[in-house]
Design brief:
Length: 254
């Protein structure tokens, strides 16, 4: 055997070993891929969801809601002055709330949750939002308002007791309402609450802040009282809420 062929032998051994490893890996990878694909398909299969209708309703939930502590659903209905009321399931109520109705849930841990696209928008008129919540609080006591719109980044959390603002922060491209001291829950979540005119001049920085805050609104709601995401698992099976339209705008109390 010539010296040149002897020099090529080690290289040939390396190539052969590498080929064997590739063959073994090519057989193993499809097995893993098939296993992962099956897991993904099983997760997407509605038949594996114990409550598919209620869970799908989550996707329809409006971006704004109110939580009321210590009041009965009927009292909340009266305070909102709803007309054409009827009883319906959570899934049906959330669908109607995404149109032009208000939906009032049953009690969950002493809280009643109100959903509705017609709830005041913090960015359009903060003064109107304050009057609306203050009126409700005068009648119902503890009222909390939340907004989390991931599309435009608008967000808000407001806590009112007996008509008085305990804490309020609302953002709609800039800070439109900031009142009261940061609560321990806000501090623990690390949300940013710039004062009036203190926003970053950089669009990327403002957008990042808005996304961060929006992603934590439900966690804040849970720390303050109740995350509405618990409704689908906390309400008794077949529980119904109240749905109706608001009759008129009520005069604010001085």
């Amino acid at each position: 055997m010539t010296p040149s062929l002897l020099m090529l032998l080690p290289f040939g051994v390396v190539v052969a070993v590498g080929f064997l490893f590739v063959r073994m890996a090519s057989r193993e990878i499809p097995k893993r891929q098939r296993s992962r694909l099956k897991e993904a398909l099983d997760a997407l299969d509605p038949s594996n969801d114990p409550e598919p209708a209620e869970e799908q309703a989550w996707l329809q939930w409006p971006s704004r809601w109110i939580a009321v502590s210590g009041a009965k659903p009927v009292a909340v209905r009266n305070a909102l002055d709803l007309c054409g009321v009827q009883w319906c399931s959570l899934a049906e109520g959330l669908q109607l709330a995404s149109e032009d109705r208000y939906f009032i849930s049953q009690h969950v841990k002493d809280w009643v949750v109100v959903f509705g696209r017609e709830l005041p928008d913090p960015g359009s008129d903060p003064d109107h939002l304050f009057r609306f919540l203050s009126d409700l609080s005068h009648e119902l006591g503890t009222v909390q308002y939340f907004c989390a719109d991931p599309v435009v980044g608008e967000h808000a959390w407001i806590w009112i007791e007996q008509g008085r603002v305990k804490r309020a922060f609302a953002w709609s491209g800039s800070t439109v309402w900031n009142q009261g001291d940061l609560t321990p829950a806000e501090k623990s979540l690390g949300v940013e609450c710039p004062g009036y005119g203190e926003e970053s001049p950089e669009d990327l920085r403002r957008n990042a802040m808005a996304r961060y805050n929006v992603d934590r609104v439900h966690q804040l709601a849970s720390k303050w009282g109740l995350d509405p995401g618990r409704l689908t698992r906390s309400l008794p099976k077949g529980a119904q809420g109240i749905v109706g339209k608001r009759r008129l705008q009520r005069k604010s109390q001085p």
